Amino acid sequence: MADPLIGIIMGSTPDWETMRHAAETLDALGVAHETKVVSAHRTPKRLYDYAHGAKARGLKAVIAGAGGAAHLPGMAASMTELPVLGVPVETKALKGMDSLLSIVQMPAGIPVGTLAIGKAGAINAALLAAAMLATTDQALATRLAEWRSRQTEAVPEQPE
Questions:
Q1: Which of 69, 76, 91, 144 is 20 to 30 A off residue 136, Cα-Cα?
Q2: Secondary structure (DSSP) of 84-115
Q3: Could you give the 3-state DSSP secondary structure of residue 64?
Q4: Predicted structure pTM score
């Protein structure tokens, strides 16, 4: 298998229920990726090592999913030059609004591209990461265009 180009990180193993949709989308597009549990709060050294080494390992972007305080995307972005795409994971208490606001409200100078809460955000993060790679990878650009075409064709013109 090819070396990973996209890193998918999440704050805890339950976040996989959301973040698996990013991995499945990248699989469908033929984009090599890796997945890791990297908590900003419980495994800060793992986060530090991951973020600082991501570019040297050949990653081109990081998709970071987190719930609650949702510090993972911002902390990762503060420690790497790579683009970081944040996916707010839905929480029980506030339905993911807490996660969304934590990720989207980054201070100037530490950007995190923030997507929708939950499954849609995970899928869109993968599509956005693939689109970024496709600017310099014509084969991926073709696969992405085909994926979008199939999506369009799947929408009926009339209700069934």
A1: 76
A2: EEEEEPP-TTTTTHHHHHHHH-PPTTS--EE-
A3: strand
A4: 0.95
* Residue-wise pLDDT tens digits, 131-158: 999 999 999 999 999 999 999 999 988 8
Cα separation of 100 and 134, whole Å?
A: 27
Is residue 71 within 8 A of residue 41, CB to CB? The reply is yes
Question: Tokens in use for 1?
Answer: 């298998």
Query: Cα 151 from chain centroid?
Result: 20
* CA 22 distance to own-chain centroid: 6
Q: Fill in the amino acid letter for 52.
A: H
What does the block give as tokens for 157? 């013109």
Measured CA to CA, the distance from residue 45 to residue 155 in angstroms comes to 46
Q: Which residues pair with 8 in a beta bridge?
A: 35, 63
Buried-exposed string 44-67: b where 16+ CB fall within 10 A, e elsewhere: eeebeebbeebeeeebbbbbbbbb
